[in-house]
Amino acid sequence: MQFSIKQIIKVGLYGLAVLVSLLPILNPFNAFSSLQNYSFDTFQQLFPREVYEDDPVVIVDIDDRSLELVGQWPWSRTTLARLTDQTYAAAALGFDIVFAEADRTNPRNLINQFPDNLALKQQVELLPDNDEVFARAIS
Fold it and tell me: In Å, what is the CA distance from 49 to each residue of 35, 55, 56, 59, 90?
């Protein structure tokens, strides 16, 4: 049985199409993750979803505009508390962020850096603790 070049090319193209279709699904090395993310981001920029006021779930994302308005990430816990307080109508809030450590921008950290400065210690102790402010906002 002999195959013509045309048949070999046809079978090869079908095989290649199947392989290309399966690679993103199998994706053993996350080779297509950046391409998939870029495609999704481009699609969302070109055709963003409409926001309806009666949507049961609204996702608030920290994007470039947020960083321009609020400042460099990570934000202090007091900033997160202020933003949380501004979402007063929300029935529930979820954060896709790990708060594993104390806030590094907490004014109380100055006491450890300048332990001999008693005047600074007295003034800093009058300021609220960033983590406590955020804890109250999310409770």
Answer: 21, 12, 15, 12, 20
CA 62 – CA 9 distance, rounded (Å) = 49
Tokens of 129: 């603790």
Cα 1 from Cα 52, distance rounded (Å): 63
Tell me the pLDDT tens digit for each residue of 33-87. Answer: 777 888 888 988 898 888 777 777 778 888 889 999 999 988 999 999 998 888 8
Residue indicated by tokens 């996702």: 59
- What is the phi-psi region of residue 44: left when phi exceeds 0, alpha when psi lies from -120 to 50, beta otherwise? alpha
Q: Do 77 and 106 meet the contact criterion of CB atoms below 8 Å apart?
A: yes
**Nearest Cα to 34, choosing from 26, 24, 44?**
24
Are the CB atoms for 130 and 78 separated by under 8 Å?
yes
Tell me which amino acid residue 92 is.
A
Phi, psi of 114 (to 5 degrees): -130, 70
**Which tops the pLDDT comparison, 29 or 79?**
79
- Side chain identity, residue 109: N
Q: How far apart are CA 64 and CA 70, in angstroms?
A: 10
